[in-house]
Specification:
The chain has one domain. It has 3 helices and 8 strands; from the N terminus they run H-E-E-E-E-E-E-E-E-H-H. The strands form 2 sheets. Strands 1, 2, 3, 4 and 5 form a 5-stranded antiparallel β-sheet that branches. Strand 6 and strand 7 form a beta hairpin. The radius of gyration is 15 Å and the shape is globular. It starts with a helix and ends with a helix.
Length: about 150
């Protein structure tokens, strides 16, 4: 597994590769866990995302990511969420996730952490340190929930 700094750089590069003017965004790594319970087993799907935003503005760009042996690539086209297509925002749901819904019915339940320890990375998350970016994201999240 590459270092935390190398993974963070690849997440930023994957975002920049699909978003016009990508380097001008502040970027954070986020994870979404979806669980389906069946009678005899439970299935968990983990999705990785890069969220880009510009401090002082309320729009954000969500890019799905794929990771394979430390190589991070964009897994689809970016989704830009603006005031026009944002339906609702919830600061924290019962599991502590940031929830954002769009007017076309998409819902993202995202966990953004300032630092992902390597022990949890063994299970599902990419180990990154993003303390400064996390603080900027918290400011954006708080401004979206009070708007």
């Amino acid at each position: 597994m590459p270092s935390k700094e190398a993974l963070k750089a690849s997440i930023h590069a994957a975002f920049d590769s699909v978003v016009p003017d990508g380097p001008s965004y502040t970027k954070v790594y986020a994870v979404e866990m979806k669980q389906k319970n069946y009678v005899v087993f439970r299935r968990t799907t983990i999705s990785n995302f890069a969220i880009g935003f510009r401090p002082g503005r309320t729009d954000l760009v969500i890019v799905p990511l794929d990771e394979n042996n430390g190589a991070v690539t964009a897994a689809g086209s970016p989704l830009t969420i603006t005031d026009a297509n944002r339906a609702s925002v919830k600061k924290r749901d019962l599991q502590g996730r940031f929830v954002i819904k769009t007017t076309d019915g998409q819902t993202f339940r995202l966990t953004v952490m300032p630092s992902v320890p390597k022990i949890t990375a063994a299970f599902y998350q990419l180990p990154v340190d993003q303390k400064a970016e996390y603080e900027a994201f918290v400011a954006l999240r708080d401004s979206l929930t009070t708007a």
